[in-house]
Design goal:
Radius of gyration: 38 Å
Helix content: 55-70%
Structural class: alpha+beta
Number of strands: 6
Order of helices and strands: HHHHHHHHHHEHHEEHEHEE
Distance between the termini: 66 Å
Shape: rod-shaped
């Protein structure tokens, strides 16, 4: 029921809706949710500490707009009853209006706080105070009116209690406390100041008490099922996110080389196929570089495979720095070989890019005692062509591989493009 709302509040929040999960361990939170869902027929409506914090943040973000709108609506209704002051008690309507005006005046800071604050506890507390003061102002009006006629405004207390329990939007515990305080104060004022006939007093307390009990039961049931649906929806949401995250990781693993984090052959071929079709359609060149680490087997024999793996990763990172555009890709072809594809790059630019990669690797001056160059070097073969419908991925790779072979034949640590030494 609330899954879409949870998703909206978390991922598409407006400024006042902060992330629900920013400070929580999702795995431990899921464990708490699962334990809560296993509890059957419990009577209390309170979650363990961390989960309760999440619920309160969710409920506040979900309800704050309603809370503010209903507060404005309640204030308007409260002021409109000033018309009844004038009609029913024209001789004291000034005193009654003074009470209403004074009530609104002292509540202004709390009303503003409800509209400006993002702290749910403080907003609910301010709302409770507003409700209690509104109820007390009605008791105050009853005190101004003669005891026999005071019962006319007794219904106003009912309206406040009804408002708090039904449309205010505040949680069950806050609405219950507000209503109980209003009833208690009414009882004290009536006993010590209004001194209503005991029949009125008993009747009023009976109806007020019944209204409060009904309101508490209704509020409790509503929040109980809100919390229950929240748990189920939140678990579904977290499970879905966890599955999406796992799927993303699996996709990354299936398309990337685990050691270097570059694209693997599968990712490269998919990318290459799309760019090849686009190049044919838009008539632009594609350049392919095949890069091989010179004397890498000797490096492994001299330094060990663990250091060899570190070299592969470092060379891979260096190559990747030169594929900055979305239409470039760097991949590990296998062993110590890497393939780079530059879309919409002609031969001249490809030679410059190959030179940049070569120079960048040489600048690292990684020792290699078994190499005649005494440091890690690479040989690069390249092929650049505007493809047509007869060209294939394999052809580009094969031509680049032949250029790489020629670079090795000519002594390694060099770049060959179309059989031309650079």
């Amino acid at each position: 029921m609330f899954e879409k709302e949870i998703d909206r509040l978390i991922n598409k929040s407006r400024g006042q809706h902060y992330s629900l999960f920013e400070s929580y361990n999702i795995r431990s939170l899921k464990n708490v949710i699962e334990k809560e869902l296993l509890k059957k027929n419990r009577l209390y409506i309170c979650f363990p500490e961390k989960l309760e914090e999440v619920f309160q943040k969710y409920y506040f973000a979900k309800s704050i707009f309603r809370i503010r709108i209903m507060l404005v609506f309640g204030i308007i209704i409260y002021l409109l009853f000033g018309i009844a002051d004038f009609i029913l008690f024209p001789h004291i309507h000034t005193e009654l209006w003074s009470i209403r005006s004074f009530t609104i005046f002292i509540l202004i800071p709390f009303i503003l706080y409800v509209f400006l604050s993002k702290d749910h506890f403080k907003v609910y507390t301010a709302y409770c105070f507003i409700s209690v003061i509104a109820g007390l102002s009605i008791v105050g009006m009853m005190f101004v009116i003669s005891p026999l006629e005071a019962q006319v405004y007794y219904a106003g207390i009912f309206l406040v209690i009804f408002f708090v329990y039904t449309v205010s939007g505040i949680p069950f515990i806050y609405s219950s406390i507000s209503s109980l305080v209003i009833i208690l104060v009414y009882l004290l004022v009536d006993l010590y100041f209004l001194r209503s006939d005991y029949k009125y007093l008993i009747s009023n307390l009976f109806f007020l008490g019944s209204a409060n009990i009904i309101g508490m039961i209704g509020g409790y049931i509503l929040e109980y099922y809100i919390r229950k649906d929240f748990l189920s929806s939140l678990k579904i949401y977290l499970d879905k996110n966890e599955l999406e995250e796992l799927t993303g990781r699996l996709k990354t693993l299936s398309e990337h080389d685990e050691l270097t984090d570059l694209a693997n052959r599968r990712k490269l071929k998919g990318f290459f196929e799309r760019e090849l079709k686009r190049a044919v359609r838009e008539n632009f060149p594609i350049s392919v570089l095949m890069i091989d680490i010179d004397y890498f087997k000797d490096y492994n024999d001299s330094y060990g495979h663990l250091k060899g793996d570190l070299i592969l990763k470092e060379i891979g990172d260096t190559i990747k720095k030169h594929t900055r555009r979305p239409t470039d890709i760097a991949s590990r072809w296998g062993g110590e070989e890497f393939v780079v594809v530059f879309s919409n790059i002609d031969e001249q630019k490809a030679v410059v890019l190959a030179g940049d990669i070569h120079a960048d690797i040489l600048s690292k001056k990684i020792p290699h005692k078994s190499s005649p160059f005494k440091q890690i070097t690479v040989s690069i073969g390249g092929y650049s062509k505007i493809p047509d419908n007869t060209r294939s991925i394999d052809e580009f790779i094969s031509r680049a591989d032949k250029a790489l072979y020629e670079a090795k034949i000519k002594g390694r640590n060099r770049i060959v493009m179309y059989g031309s030494q650079v």
